[in-house]
Amino acid sequence: MLKRPTLWIIVAVIAAFAIAPLLGGVGLRESLFLAAVYMVLALNLNLMIGYTGYVNFGSIVFFGLGGTIGLYTITVWHWPLWAGMLAAAVVVGGLSLVLGLGILRLRGAYFALATIGVVEATKAFVSNFDPFGGSTGMYLSFTSYKPLGGPREALWVIYFLVLFMLALSLLLGLWIKRSRFGLGLFAIREDEDAAVVLGVKAPLYKAIIYSTSSLLPAMTGVLFFFKNGVIQPDQAFDLTLSIEAIVMMMLGGQGTVLGAGLGAFAYEQFRGYLLTSSTFASFHLVIAGALLLLIVLFAPGGLMGWIHERLPRTRRVLE
Amino acid sequence: MLGVLVSVINGLLVGAIYGLAAIGLTLIFGVMNVINLAHGAMIALGMFALYFITTGIGLSPYLALPVVFAGGFIVGVVVFWVAVHRVIGRAELMSLLATFAVSMMVVGLGTAAWSTSPYNVQVHLPGLTLGRYTIPGNHIVAAVAAVAIAALLYGFLYYSRLGKAIRAVASNRQAAELMGIPSAKVLAIAFGIGIAIAAVAGALIATLFPFTILSGANYELKSFVVTVLGGLGNPAGALLGGLLLGLIEGSVTPFVSGSWTPVIEFTLFVLILIAFPRGLFRVGRGR
Description:
The complex is a heterodimer.
Chain A: H1 6-24, H2 26-52, H3 60-75, H4 81-103, H5 108-128, E1 138-139, H6 151-178, H7 180-190, H8 192-197, H9 202-228, E2 230-231, H10 233-236, H11 239-252, H12 257-276, H13 284-298, H14 302-310, H15 314-317
Antiparallel strand pairs in A: 1-2
Helix pairs in contact in A: 1-2, 1-6, 2-6, 2-9, 2-11, 2-12, 3-4, 3-5, 3-9, 4-9, 6-7, 6-9, 7-9, 11-12, 11-14
Chain B: H1 2-32, H2 39-56, H3 65-84, H4 92-114, E1 128-130, E2 133-135, H5 137-159, H6 161-171, H7 173-178, H8 183-206, H9 215-230, H10 235-252, H11 261-275
Antiparallel strand pairs in B: 1-2
Helix pairs in contact in B: 1-5, 1-8, 1-9, 1-10, 2-3, 2-4, 2-8, 2-9, 3-8, 5-6, 5-8, 6-8, 9-10, 9-11
């Protein structure tokens, strides 16, 4: 148990997230809610960039499309929330599996460009597609919150559902990292041609991980926009948030579960501080950009990479 | 019918400017394998540079272009030494993020200084009248300027000593270094030229349409589409790609609502990238 404490760290983190807002109140819950959403995005992106070495610049498309499909089923077909989440996961997971088989034939910069294209194409399509509300988006009516016990109670339910998504993301990341499948992904990251020669089914593995990394963000997207009460394409498919997710993952350390989670948490706190402070509010982009540049130039391994380098023995302990 | 023809001509004229903007992007990629995500921010800076030169000094917008070019070159060289120099040759993620960081800083400062409300540069030129339709004069001049600048760049790359050095470093940095070419300086110059071209393209766009500090992002995406049409790292292909994108936009506009154009563009972008990752045209000698 003490040799591989990552699982217990995860349990402790989830417990802390569950208990803190019960003590700290609604304000703390809102802050932790956003942190948990960011952590889900960064952790799942880590499966692609950190584990497989494919730079997905457009991971936000999973979140946005999931939210769009979920809210469509909830507002138009009056499905319950859980069914909307399931529908979002099935549709987004299926689409990304098919898409992944296509665009993952591209490598390096070409792949990164293609993922940007996917976000923009999807955003442009959703903005024009009238059933999804076009560019004005979709609005929830208050009655949608009734099955959860009214708007006030719904916020708590949604918080714990997002927390559940966070727990799943952490466990999924850890499980893949320790599995044979994960080993195949690492082999692809280090040298794809060599991995193929050694019998790793690279195209299939890549498509599976691309699709897997879409499921939890899609469901979290439904929760996020369900809580929001409204979804608009410009907001749902925001390329900046997609890149911010990369920053979070880099900040904590790509390729590590705890690092990606910690990075997202720290970034959310930092961003919240910048946005609310009177001196930095209008310069938060500038400061975030400078921070990103410093990480890229001087600490590409992020916080975990730095710790691993200083204390090599932590490499096996903090996964 | 004439309406469609005018729309196609207009599309081609704007397409030439898309092509010029994309040349800035593709030159940098071709020479140092860096996708410059600060491209849009630099286009936006070019727009604002033109605005302040024309309103501040009262210079004609077209005479201001060399000033914008020189300014863009200096900014580009500074950005290279600060952000790009250290990430060349490392994983793609690093150069993508380093240039994106620059973009965040520029857009952040620009938003703080100039807000996000639209600006425009007044240009009065007689247009070309075809029946009921008019092709605006500023579109024609801007397109001609774009093609002329592209031609100048082509001549520079193929016939000047420095241009040849840039191509040598692009094709094999180590071998170029062994031949006595200071490759880091050459890369800095190439990056500066790439940014300068983006800024000039931005200035030309500013003579056609109103703009904000955020407009650059849209033209950056168009530049990606154009580069992919023309083949990444291929300047001559980029100009043709720009014309092709303009042709698509011009011929689609009369028939479907304008908001569908990006759907077509980006779907085409992804499909072409999957099917022809080296671009549609393999013109020139590439790199």
